Amino acid sequence: MTATVAADRLACWAVGGVGAVTAGADLAAHLAGPLQAAGGLRPFDVVIVTHKIVSKAEGRLVELGAVEPSPEALRLAGDVGQDPRLVEVILAETRRVVRAVPGLLVTETHQGLVCANAGVDRSNVGGGGLVTLLPEDPDASARRLRQGWLPLAGGGPLGVVVTDTFGRPFRDGGVNVAIGVAGMPAMSDHRGIQDPYGYELRVSTLATADEIAGMGELVMGKVDGRPLAVVRGLSWDDGDRDAQTGAARLQRNPDRDVFRW
């Protein structure tokens, strides 16, 4: 069993004063001051970071004006009604095109994430023709941030969740989800536990990191300039090996994914 356990109550707050993040910045150091000013960190805190500032620090930016669309991008752009240069960038980040219909391009990224436009985004970038890409390895990004912030939390335990907003099958509206996780279990596995009536749970696994990501978006907002949040009140077994598996554990095996069938 791997479980992230809540206390009687949770606290969650956004962190402001982050300022501009530029390519090559030491993001952990850049954000340490705002984290301290917002109350600091304690053991078992979880820091939620929107991928946009991670991508900026890692230089995952593309200027559309410098992109030359391929014949495949031109064809696909006509099908979905998007800028061919943007489609070319999306294809470069794509392992597989899942669905292409007017107004919608869903792909599977090289990281294994299934989302709109391979996560390529024009919002909150700074204007002009710039777009951001997802971090190349979001779990590695989360691990680096955690390592930089461990001293702020007295050596930990400390969780870090890197997030993006995804749509969902059969549900309108997007939800913040975890694309990178470090220092804590991405999932809580309750199989084998008995409920209050003695029934043994058999399939109860919760995407805890996604639930934490959604909580963060409620306080960070989408256009409020607060790309960072802290959750306090959780606990987990810090020695559990599953705590080191990152967000990759949240990716469903294609053989068990009814939407791919």
Give a description of the structure.
- The protein has a five-stranded mixed beta sheet with strand order 1-12-2-8-9, sandwiched between helices.
- The relative contact order is 0.21.
- The protein folds into two domains: 4-60 and 135-254, 2-Layer Sandwich (60s Ribosomal Protein L30, Chain: A); 62-130, CofE-like domain (CofE-like fold, Alpha-Beta Complex).
- It has helices spanning 27-37, 51-57, 71-80, 84-92, 138-149, 208-220, and strands spanning 4-15, 45-50, 61-63, 94-101, 104-109, 114-116, 130-132, 158-168, 171-182, 188-189, 205-206, 228-236.
- It has six helices and twelve strands.
- It is of the alpha+beta class.
- A hairpin with a 2-residue loop joins strand 8 and strand 9.
- Helices cover 24% and strands 30% of the residues.
Query: Could you tell me the mean pLDDT?
Result: 86
Proportion of beta-strand residues: 25-35%
Report the principal-axis shape.
globular
Flag low-confidence runs: none
Major sheet: order of its strands? Answer: 1-12-2-8-9
Radius of gyration, rounded? 19 Å
- Name of the CATH homologous superfamily of the largest domain: CofE-like
Cα distance spanning the termini? 30 Å
Number of strands: 12
CATH class of the largest domain: Alpha Beta
CATH topology of the largest domain: 60s Ribosomal Protein L30, Chain: A
Topology as a string of helices (H) and strands (E): EHEHEHHEEEEHEEEEHE
**Broad structural category:** alpha+beta
Largest sheet: 5 strands, mixed
**What CATH architecture of the largest domain do you see?**
2-Layer Sandwich
With helices defined by DSSP (H or I, 4 residues minimum), what is the helix count? 6
- Compute the number of structural domains: 2
Helix content: 10-25%
